[in-house]
Amino acid sequence: MRLFTIGDLHLSFGVPDKPMDIFGGWKDYQKLLEQNWLERIAPEDTVVLAGDFSWGMTLAQAEADFAFVQNLPGQKILLKGNHDYWWASKKKMDDFFTAHGFNTLHILHNNHYAFGQYGICGTRGWVSMQGEAADAKILAREVQRLQVSIQSAVDAGLEPIVFLHYPPIYGTSMNYEILEVLHKYQIRKCYYGHVHGKSGHNHAFQGMYEGTEMRMISSDYLQFVPEQIF
Predict the structure, then answer these.
(1) Are 83 and 53 in contact (CB under 8 A)?
(2) What is the C-alpha to C-alpha distance for residues 135 and 127, in angstroms, rounded to an integer?
(3) pLDDT digits over 64-85, tens only?
(4) Cβ(230)–Cβ(3) under 8 Å?
(5) With contact defined as beta carbons under 8 Å apart, do 150 and 178 qualify?
(6) What CATH code would you report for 3-228?
């Protein structure tokens, strides 16, 4: 039983293909992802999908993408990305998965999932835009969701591992509100996606920050190979 993660699958089986190739390195990426997944992941493994899962605008439009991942080995835990317009209430998503037999798909939203001694926690996150009231409100909500998720794992006696869509640090931009939560709970591992293209990857922070190891797991950065954590 192993734990993997990858972000930004940007699947589009139910809608017209999106031009991900503008970033370079996305040719036949859905086939490449499937091949790499089948080579590495077993039915007893778990994969955390860190946002931007599908280009579908609704659950119905994303159904083909859910079916694609459902048919791959392992349990999958999904959190929200900025392009996941299909995202709805957790109950509505859980009900949709149940109705369609997607029993390997699980939503991470104000909760956690146990994996051995660890608690899989996370939320979308947000950018840090100083002086922007609307962004401040969204960020405050994401900070709260992250705290609720982490605290639920702590209350269960588990060590939290955090998964975000947005990077807490990018170039010279520091999302201090998110970083404060990571510091408060002494999070040792944090994984994030969202960043694409070589120029973007070059600005992404990876390494230790105040005791937290940060890793970028955008699918194009990983060359569509899910990264093993444990």
Answers:
(1) no
(2) 8
(3) 999 999 999 999 999 999 999 9
(4) yes
(5) no
(6) 3.60.21.10
By three-state DSSP, how is residue 222 classified? coil
Please say whether the beta carbons of 180 and 186 come within 8 A.
Answer: no
Mean pLDDT of 15-38: 83
Task: Please give the Cα distance from 187 to 130 (Å, whole number).
Answer: 25
* Non-local CB neighbours of 25 within 8 Å, separated by 6+ positions: 220, 223
CB 165 within 8 A of CB 9: no
Tokens standing for residue 107: 């939503």
Sketch the domain layout of the chain as residue ranges: 3-228
CA atoms within 13 A on the CB side of 179: 17
Identity of the residue numbered 87: W
139-142: long-range pairs with CB below 8 Å, 24+: 139/175, 139/177, 139/178, 140/177, 142/178
Work out the end-to-end distance of the chain between its first and last CA atoms, rounded to an integer number of angstroms: 9
The CA-atom distances, in angstroms, between 114 and each of 119, 137, 219 are 5, 30, 24
Give 84-120 pLDDT, tens digit per residue.
Answer: 999 999 999 999 999 999 999 999 999 999 999 999 9
Return the HEC string of 163-191: EECCCCEECCEECHHHHHHHHHCCCCEEE
The number of residues in the chain equals 230
